[in-house]
Amino acid sequence: MSSKPGFPRHVAIIMDGNGRWAQAKGLPRFAGHQAGAKMVREIVECAAELGLEVLTLYAFSHENWKRPKKEISLLMSLLEYFLEAELKNLLENDIRLQAIGRLEALPPKALSKLRKTIQATRHNKGLVLNLALNYGSRQEILDAVKRIVADPPHEITEATISGNLYTRELPDPDLLIRTSGEMRLSNFLLWQISYAEIYITEKFWPDFKKAEFLKAMDVYKKRERRFGAVKA
Ligand code: IPE
Ligand code: IPE
Ligand code: MG
Q: Which of 61, 151, 161, 173 fits as disulfide partner to 12, beta carbons 3.0 to 4.6 Å?
């Protein structure tokens, strides 16, 4: 399946600002994570409706283990809840779940639910929903280098690196979205977004509704991607 003309094939999102959303409302950070998890469904459905090929969501970074234990365990419970609650929706919308990151280090319960949902949706042919969990781009590149040196090919090319990343079966993102206004990548897909268009919005992730996502699509359509060449 391929995306409609003018739309990105692959959109990657740094879902940031749950904590600030909650703080602005005088609520605990967890309430922000809960609201953020709800917004995931809306955006995933919208991406599927638009016929995008891949939606990668940064859900938990390699660096997020630095957060308080309680917040981490709440985030992991939310992940488990999401995986269970969304299965029906994923099947109905023909969405295939995938995940990138050092998954084996996730808590066993979350990992087993993740594997089950990936397995249950593996024959779906529509959108690929790719969750970045315990994901760090430097760690991904390091893991790729280790794989390559363990069984070195005759020649090392860009394709050798791309082909050993966790994202090896996916096209590179065309559009990177970050919510909450931070101007940084936070160790996300450093190799893969070399030529992605970047869209940063001040909206906190729990306020990033379908209309905001569609706005990002419109902005993307107006961008001129030159890939280093001059305008034709
Ligand atoms: C994003 O929201 C969710 C995760 C990183 C898991 P944050 O929790 O980072 O929210 P802010 O940045 O503190 O507002
Ligand atoms: C990036 O957000 C990670 C996720 C959205 C999962 P962070 O909130 O962890 O990033 P920093 O700490 O502001 O760079
Ligand atoms: Mg943040």
A: 173
How far is Cα 203 from Cα 91, in angstroms, rounded to an integer? 30
Q: For residue 123, give its domain range.
A: 10-221
Task: List all residues whose CB is within 6 A of at least one atom of ligand 1.
Answer: 15-20, 60, 64, 75, 180
* Domain total in the chain: 1
Segment 149-200, tens digit of pLDDT? 999 999 999 999 999 999 999 999 999 999 999 999 999 999 999 999 999 9
Q: What is the CATH number of the domain that holds 154?
A: 3.40.1180.10
Distance 213 CA to ligand 1 centre (A): 19
4 pLDDT band (50/70/90 cuts)? confident
Angle at which helices 29-50 and 69-92 pack, to 10 degrees? 20
Assess if residue 95 is contained within a domain.
Answer: yes
Residue 177 lies in a domain: yes
